[in-house]
Write a structure and sequence with these properties.
The protein is built from three helices and eight strands; from the N terminus they run βαββββαβββα. The strands form two sheets. Strands 1-4-3-2 form a four-stranded mixed β-sheet, covered by helices on one side. With 138 residues, the protein is an alpha/beta fold. This is Fosfomycin resistance glutathione transferase. Its EC number is 2.5.1.18. It comes from Pseudomonas serboccidentalis.
Length: 138
């Protein structure tokens, strides 16, 4: 049985640039580096950057993205830091909880989000998506 998300690996085209972004802009902790990669962390998250010559800088057209949590009190300063670093936004927030959708240097779609699954479900019960069903334990 699966017990949780183990790690994320992101293919990058320029390792020093990506390492600087995740370390200096997003404040992840660098755990290890090597010629073709790096391990970084946040509490509960292991992120691997892997140098890949096939990685392009354009984001995919679908909604696939990786969301990071942060507290509401930290949201304004965090988004201001991203904007000051000229980080590119890729979407406006359209759902519950404050969110800032942005791209990393390789076009990976990221999100900084205030809230969790519980707060999202509460909001969805008040205003459900088309065809939404809830599966409560009985």
């Amino acid at each position: 049985m699966l017990t949780g998300l183990n790690h994320l690996t992101l293919a990058v085209s320029d390792l020093p640039r990506s390492l600087a972004f995740y370390r200096d802009v997003l404040n992840l902790r660098v755990e290890a580096t090597w010629d073709a990669g790096a391990y970084l962390s946040l509490p509960g998250l292991w992120l691997c950057l892997s140098l890949d010559a096939q990685r392009g800088a354009e984001p995919s057209v679908d909604y696939t993205h990786y969301a990071f949590s942060l507290d509401q009190a930290d949201f304004p300063a965090f988004t201001q830091k991203l904007k000051a670093a000229n980080v590119r936004e890729w979407r406006d927030n359209r759902s519950e909880g404050a969110s800032f959708y942005f791209l990393d240097p390789d076009g990976h779609k990221l999100e900084a989000h205030v809230g969790d699954l519980a707060s999202r479900l509460v909001a969805c019960r008040l205003k459900p998506y088309a065809g939404m069903r809830f599966y409560d334990e009985s």
